[in-house]
Each structure stands twice: as structure tokens, then as C-alpha cells.
Amino acid sequence: MNRIAFITGATSGFGRACAHRFAEAGWSLVLSGRREERLAELREALEDKVPVHTAVLDVRDDAAVKAMVEALPDEFAGVTCLINNAGLALAPQPTQQVDLADWHTMIDTNVRGLANVTHALLPTLIEQGAGTSIINLGSVAGDTPYPGSHVYGATKAFVKQFSYNLRCDLLGTGVRVTDVAPGLSETEFTLVRTGGNQDAHDALYQGTTPLSAEDIAEQIFYVATLPAHININRMDVMPVRQAWAPFAIDRD
Ligand code: NDP
Ligand code: 8X3
User: Keyword Oxidoreductase: yes or no (predicted)?
Assistant: First the structure.
């Protein structure tokens, strides 16, 4: 089987680390994101090792997603692993202080965007059959509530249930589906979430040992390269130095 990974949000964090990890193992790569310069840098860094196709893509734009998939050069058209990674959190304030536009951006990216890419690639993945994978980036926020998670955590709960439901419908096709749900991980995630607040980024990760983008890329690579008869349904991964907190109680 050709090994072709299609990675959304390849311009940063987990997506970029996956591009490097899969290239190391000789996979062909289809890399997308909105930042063209970052895609060009990645292509330059990796194309000596493996075939690389890059495309500027906003996953929220369903027509653009469909057109991009349809226009894949033959060499990249037989995608065998979809890594639905593009996503973001915004506005970590209490929900009652958050602009509706920020809720919409999270829903449009993490829910609609992930659905757009999945829908566009499902026929290809089914055609490739046994051993292919859809790996969706969920989050511990998809099942653990915490202040300021509001719509973000809810979008990741969607990712989990959508992944499980896809498994049901894809039974018999050989296509595997996994919800990879990381906890605290140091990427550009907190900068995006806080509107570029470097102090907030530094404060969150300082004095502890978060997961790195490379840690998660290694887990994703593991899931994608298991024998074809094995499906990891969900991978819930935290740093050792993170756990859950007690219930909060409002008192007089
Ligand atoms: P980063 O901010 O480092 O990377 C996010 C990536 O998503 C970027 O490449 C960005 O590319 C892309 N992206 C965002 N919006 C869009 C869009 N509309 N269309 C296409 N691409 C988009 O964060 P992470 O690597 O940490 O996040 C990756 C995924 O992992 C997300 O789904 C996130 O929710 C999830 N996650 C992150 C955790 C963490 O603690 N870091 C933990 C659990 C899950 P560009 O801006 O160029 O479009
Ligand atoms: C990102 C991890 O803990 O900030 O999905 O929700 S967390």
C-alpha cells in the first residue's frame, strides 16, 4: 500500500510535528494550513526526503476543501491516513463574557472543518481499504469540563462522538478511526487562545512538564502504523504532571 498522510493544520504544533515524523518514516505528505510561508518552509525542509504536496486551505470552506481534494495530483490522490488536526480554542474567559463570533469560529473550524475534510476524503479512504486511518484531534477537554472551556470543550466532545459514530458506519471497509485526545501540550495553542498573550503562554507551561508536539506526533504515528486489524478507538494522553481537579462549589 502507498503511504500518504493528509495533514490539516500542518503549519504549527502537532500537525507540523506529524509532517516531520511521517516523513522520517518515508510517507508521502499532503500538507495544508492557512499560512502559506509556513507551508513553503515545511516543503523545503522535507521534500528532499519524501514527496510533498502543499496547499493553502481553510478547513472552514467546504467548497475549497472539496476542490483541493479533487485537484490532488495523481501521486498524492490515494490518501491512506487523514490527520484531522486543524483546530483552535479562543477566549478562555467565562462563557458569559465571550463574543458569539469566537464561538462560531471554534464551531466552524473544529466541527464543520473536521467534517468538511472527512467528507471529502471518505471515498478515497474507503477505496484504499484495510490499513487506512482517520485520526481526529480531540482533547481531554472533550470530556472534562473546566472554566473557560465552554464551546471549545463542546467541539471536542463532538470530535469524540463523531469518531465513534464513524467507526460504526465504516465497519467492514477496513478504515480505522481514532480520537486522539491530548492534555496539556506546549504548541502555539495558548498563544492563539489568548490572542497572542506570550505571558499567558509562558505562565501555563512554566514549572511543569507539558507534552510536546513531538510526543503527540509519536502517538499519532503509532496509531497509524499499527497492524491493519487493530483500531485504537480513543487515546487519552496527559503529561504525568497533569491530573483532574476536585469539583468547584459555590458557598455563601
Ligand atoms: P497550534 O495552534 O500550534 O496549531 C493549530 C493548527 O491548526 C495550525 O497549523 C493552524 O494553521 C491550523 N488551523 C487553525 N485554524 C485553521 C483553519 N480554519 N483552517 C486550516 N487550518 C487551521 O495548536 P496545536 O498543534 O496544539 O493544535 C492542533 C490540534 O490539537 C487542535 O485541534 C487542538 O484543538 C488540538 N489539541 C491541542 C492541545 C494542546 O494543548 N496544544 C491539546 C488537545 C488538543 P494556520 O493558522 O496556518 O491555518
Ligand atoms: C487543549 C488541552 O487542557 O487546554 O485541548 O483543554 S486543554
Answer: yes
Which cell goes with 64? 475549497
Which ligand neighbours the alpha carbon of 16 most closely? 1
Distances (CA, A) of 68 to 10, 36, 78, 230: 15, 15, 14, 30
Tens digit of pLDDT for each residue in 148-177? 999 999 999 999 999 999 999 999 999 999
Give kind and range of the element (H or E) at residue 177: strand 176-182
What is the reported pTM? 0.98
Name all residues whose Cβ lies below 6 A of ligand 2: 139-141, 183-184
152 is catalytic: yes
Q: What is the mean pLDDT of residues 225-251?
A: 98
CATH architecture of 4-237: 3-Layer(aba) Sandwich (3.40)
Nearest alpha-carbon partner for 220 in 98, 136, 102, 94: 136
Dihedral sign from CA coordinates of 199, 97, 9, 38: negative
